[in-house]
Amino acid sequence: MRMLLIHSDYLEYEVKDKALKNPEPISDERKKDRLDEVLAVFISVEKVDESNPEEVVEKAVAEIEDVVKQVKAERVFVYPFAHLSSELASPSVALEILQKIEEKLKEKGYEVKRAPFGYYKAFKLSCKGHPLAELSRTIVPEEGVSK
Ligand SMILES: C[C@@H](O)[C@H](N)C(=O)N[C@H]1[C@@H](O)[C@H](n2cnc3c(N)ncnc32)O[C@@H]1CO
């Protein structure tokens, strides 16, 4: 898994067209959304993650929580982003992993939104520009350890 984490004044998106034959079904209110004072987390789920999704979810949540605490972000935007890797996981596994990351962060008490999966989206992002405002993380499951 590849993550790009941008501490931002805001992130807003608007769904445009389908980018997959069967994108995630979404309600009208999720067609456009915005969060202010947010840690935007752009995530490419990778093939290697398919060997141990649970572990990758755990590691991703730990990394995101670590950065949230460092930059003192008030909320998190989980943003599916297929452009950080050339070894993408299947859409079904990727969506599941992203939903689990959202769920676990909410369980920890964070205010979290997740941008819709399987669409082309317009977005606006206002990076804060401080030294920790732009970070990337790579997460891989332990070699061959599959539950
Ligand atoms: C297109 C661009 O504007 C938009 N931002 C986009 O990336 N859309 C992606 C993700 O929402 C999702 N998607 C599919 N596979 C994956 C994956 N392995 N990891 C993350 N997202 C995925 O499916 C879309 C097409 O790849």
Features:
binds 3'-deoxy-3'-(L-threonylamino)adenosine; 147 residues; 2 helices; alpha/beta
Oligomeric nature of the chains = single chain
Largest sheet: 6 strands, mixed
Number of helices: 2
Strand content: 35-45%
* Bound small-molecule species: 3'-deoxy-3'-(L-threonylamino)adenosine
Helix content: 10-25%
CA(first)-CA(last) distance? 18 Å
Structural class given helices, strands, pairing? alpha/beta
- Low-pLDDT regions: none
Instruction: Work out the number of β strands.
Output: 6
- Give the overall silhouette: globular
Mean pLDDT: 96
Rg is 14 Å
Encode the helix/strand succession as letters. Answer: EEHEHEEE
Written account of the structure:
- With 147 residues, this protein is α/β, with parallel strands linked by helices.
- It is 24% helix and 37% strand.
- The protein has 2 helices and 6 strands, in the order E-E-H-E-H-E-E-E.
- Helix 1 links the parallel strand 2 and strand 3.
- Helix 1 packs across helix 2.
- The radius of gyration is 14 Å and the shape is globular.
- The mean pLDDT is 96.
- The structure holds 3'-deoxy-3'-(L-threonylamino)adenosine (A3T).
